[in-house]
Amino acid sequence: MFSETFRSGIFNKDFRRQLLVTLTVVIITFCHGISLGWLSPMLPQLQSASETPLDFVIDVSEASWVGSMISFGGFSGNFLFSFVMNRFGRKVALYGLALPHTCIWILFYFADSVEWLYAARVCAGLSGGGMFIVLPLFIGEIADKSIRGRLCSFFNLAINIGIMVGFVISSHVPYHVIPCAVVVLPICYVLLTTRFPETPQQLMRWGREEDAKRALKYYCNCDGPTPSKESERAYRNQFEEMRGALQQPTKDSGNEGLTMSDFCNRRALKAIATGLVLMVGNIFTGTFAFINYMSNIFERVHTQLEPNTNTIIIGAVQIVGTLASIYLVDRHGRKILLSVSCAGSALGTGAFGLYAFFGDETETDLSAISSWLPVTIMAFNIFLANVGIISVTMVVLVEVLPPKIRAVGTSACLGCLSCFAFTSLKAFPLMMEYWGLAATMWGCASVSVLCFFYVIVFMEETKGKSIYD
């Protein structure tokens, strides 16, 4: 059974290059994850006059802006890289992702006022917003439909590994050493990205059919002197399907200009609604805010473990959740994972809110269980969120949107995601302060319940769906 799964999965020799190219492009998402994880342990240091590694101290208001400025860059990055990708191709957009990310670490290193930190976080948003546009589409176009979900899930796996690395190094490595070490990674990423071709679909859109054939043979691993019959057959089938889809305007291939009717038909409206609901679930179920304010959350519930230790544990749980998603997404489908994830997030955030209510607001003595229960509930919540609503969202977004509006629709949904992320990051600490942690968690749980209802009733399964349908 295992050997059969191995032969038919992402390690199949016919899919080897698709896997290697995916691992190459997610280097930049790993770097982005480090920049995200850097914030949570570093903020308390920057706010402390005795611990700050810089020549200035930031107050609570400035700290909230440092946290939320990433969303301004994310909104701009969504539309900037969407334009670059569609005007100049996927490869140029991939190269471009390295530029703002490199600027992050340069700005962190030379920061002599809080404005430098704001600028660095805006650059992190530009890079991150571009990644969420470019990488799912790029991976979706080069990947065979039988492994597309798993390869797209590597995007989130790399981010989560990066977040945990960021948690660890910002807790234990001197401030000015971190940029010097991490800035090497985007340079390596650019050099490796030169080693593979543009996507066949983009080359076909440019009318370069012979180049598209060569690119598709490369990604199907059948460009050698003695390709296997299976890989040759897969190449021919994929090329005919691709050519037929991209040369027929009636199949919404994108060869003609977009009109309002492309967005206002039943299929497009339902797809956009699904995308927006998934964006709401991705942010307002709370996971993104939890990651940014994890240390503050654990301080509020008076856990006996050191806050940064809890944060690193949660970072490891994120990785396990994403690995589970990679294993399950193409075996059991997207809908079941999203359903389980939304239901589990509702239970997890609801339970954490209940613990916070008794521990923080009623001042009940929970010392007997405070060393393990808060981190266990949060780990349960983060694990299930990464199994579905975090990891699978981008896979479904690429698959559910009609091809003709896919690029524009993805940009619009991710633009909304950036707005939602800013709202969440800016409002979350204020909600904890004025509503209390318990009510804040219950608010996240209610969003999870609404998303669960939508997924069960309205969302279609996209497992095995052709990228051209």
TrEMBL record:
Which membrane topology describes this protein? Answer: Multi-pass membrane protein
Q: Where is the Major facilitator superfamily (MFS) profile domain?
A: 21-463
Identify the InterPro entries for this entry.
MFS_dom, MFS_ERD6/Tret1-like, MFS_sugar_transport-like, MFS_trans_sf, MFS_Trehalose_Transporter
The UniProt keywords, alphabetically, are: Cell membrane, Membrane, Sugar transport, Transmembrane, Transmembrane helix, Transport
> Main localization of the protein?
membrane
Molecular function GO labels: sugar transmembrane transporter activity
GO CC annotation, single: plasma membrane
Coiled-coil residues are none
Q: Name one Pfam family in it.
A: Sugar_tr
Transmembrane ranges?
20-43, 63-85, 92-110, 116-139, 151-169, 175-196, 268-291, 311-329, 336-358, 378-401, 408-428, 434-457
* Compartmental location: Cell membrane
**By what name is this protein known?**
Major facilitator superfamily (MFS) profile domain-containing protein
Source lineage? Eukaryota, Metazoa, Ecdysozoa, Arthropoda, Hexapoda
